[in-house]
């Protein structure tokens, strides 16, 4: 064990740690403290998400699991000699540079992932590659600390809808599906974001990964078990949604909704988790006393011996960890000051055959444009009375809370009655979506982003362009344009939008004109 047998007089913890491990563990603790304190705001945001967002509540026990995994290896770890390893600084530099890119572009997922990787790189730097290899799985399991997965919601909604409609038809209930809406004899059902099953899937993947490692030795069995751990919760979520619809046919929607909440919130998850473990139980091939690592093999591994030649001074590397953290923090502060010069005001541009008009919508629709510097919201109307709604936003820079391409931003406003219905054909360079509210109001929306000379709909491209701006101190303004039209008895959304775009000319030039950029 890492801890020596305690003396009869209850020795202090420091005295119970094997002598060869005391200084390396102290230096690792200092390195981790430097990373945790230096980037405290990011860690606090991660913890806030773990605590407040139900999708990530399971992450609260991940640190405990990691500690348990390390403890299970402690007897074998004690046979290894840890040592500082300077190439680990290269990994740490890469991780901190990733944090920098995420921080200056407002991409929290990247910055959070990078900080977890910085802790992992610190282990390699302070304890060496031999110990890090022995701790490979606990270190890798740390990736589950990153709050990620809500981006899967739209895809999971569609998958759940398709499973549900298939089961609904199989059970003899006449129904039709359009996007995430299922119309049945007793009413219209929506596979809402909360019903996508994303929180269930993310937690099951983490559980499946742990069980596959702890309970199996065969990689084939591990792969099969992980496949079941991914597929089972997706199928189960479809069954749950179908069950709600099935019960509603005889008991009413209100009863079915209440039953679904109780069953899914308190019972269903536990039952599916138990089913997963029951499926895998008879195939477990790791004995309870099998060690997770073999220290003798690690000590004699020649490839690890070759890496030992790059050992370094532990205290010098500890200081380097702190220095690298503050270099990247200073770089981020400097890069965040890079913003494009903007005009004092922006304005509408004349469109042949159309004139600006006050907003008049059958149901309110206001796209989310977080943190804009200038914004226009208006409508254009032609002689036939057809209407196109226009939302244009201009940004001097992109960062957290101030993003044109942020999750939840753009044509589909979150926390409203508007729902994603389906994708829509869009002009080249734009993304198109069909939206629906309250089961009756429909509209089509096209979205473009413009940065420098580029115009398109790729959020990844937009992020990369803004990263480049701030790293090279070459700021360019960012624009977002959303055009939308309602489906009404007097107009077809896509036809109206196509005619409007024929009149505006090239979208990039039209956006520049509204932004008053020469």
From TrEMBL:
Protease listed as a keyword: yes
Membrane-related topology note: Multi-pass membrane protein
Compartments in which it is found: Cell membrane
Domain Methanolan biosynthesis EpsI: 320-508
Domain of life: Bacteria
Spans traversing the lipid bilayer: 25-44, 50-71, 83-101, 107-124, 131-149, 223-243, 263-284, 314-333
This protein's record includes keyword Transmembrane helix: yes
Major location category of this protein: membrane
Pfam family of the protein (one): Exosortase_EpsH
Keywords (A to Z) from UniProt: Cell membrane, Hydrolase, Membrane, Protease, Transmembrane, Transmembrane helix
Protein name as annotated: Exosortase A
Native source organism of the sequence: Erythrobacter westpacificensis
Gene that encodes the chain: xrtA
